[in-house]
Amino acid sequence: MLIKRLEALNERLKEMADLTRSMLDDSLKALEALDTDLAARVADSDELLVNQMETWNLEEAIHVITLFQPMGKNVRLLVAIILINRDLERIADHAENIANHARYLASPEPQPGSGHGAPREIEIPKELLAMGEIARKMVADSLRAYTDEDEGLAKRVIAGDEELNDLTARTVRLLIGRMSGGCRDGESGDGPELTETCWRLALIARNLERVGDHATNIAESVLFVVESHLHLHHKHEIVRELEAMRKKKRPRGDG
């Protein structure tokens, strides 16, 4: 009975993971295409469903622990499910935030002295688009590591978080430069609107960085299940371990 309940709970978690990944994909598509309808669906419908799934999964996990008092790998799996359940809900929250920013950016820009708006001229930095791809891959890989109990893949997700952090810093610096160049005192035209646009793009970058953090958390939960050891706050040790493995595999004479 315990195994059947665990399997059913795992299936529900995977359904939630699929929806969360879809939300992240769709929020980024809405940003690239400036699609208000797609952004609205992510922010208004999908987010509500993910919240409902999170509540059901948590309640079921608590019931299973209370009823069966599992031990060993089963209890580690239930703890991981509870942690991943929370991380998925937070990823969905960040996808909702991105969708809401995309919905604003897709809305017409107000025109002074007119009741109408004009389409915004928005240049999305290639660095921000690259961040989206990295964040999506981190989430996908962390969930595949969970499904396959792939310790190596989980460690690669954790090690890869540094790349996303570095790209976040570069993207935000770029956007701050755009803001400072377009809203100096005495300038006319798009100063305030440019500032708002760049600020929202910077907030999207920050949300993507947090998505990477939650993917890292999922990977750490995978290691807890597989190794029965918590790897919280040990990212740098894992990076060094993987680098040492790469050097060991590198053929002699390769600099």
UniProtKB/TrEMBL annotation:
The keyword Nucleus does not apply. Its main location: cytoplasm. It comes from the Bacteria. Pfam families: PhoU. Keywords: Cytoplasm, Phosphate transport, Transport. Residues 13-100, 129-222 form the PhoU domain. GO terms for cellular component: cytoplasm. The keyword Nuclease does not apply. GO terms for biological process: intracellular phosphate ion homeostasis; negative regulation of phosphate metabolic process; phosphate ion transport. Homodimer. Plays a role in the regulation of phosphate uptake. Belongs to the PhoU family. This is Phosphate-specific transport system accessory protein PhoU. It comes from Candidatus Coatesbacteria bacterium RBG_13_66_14.
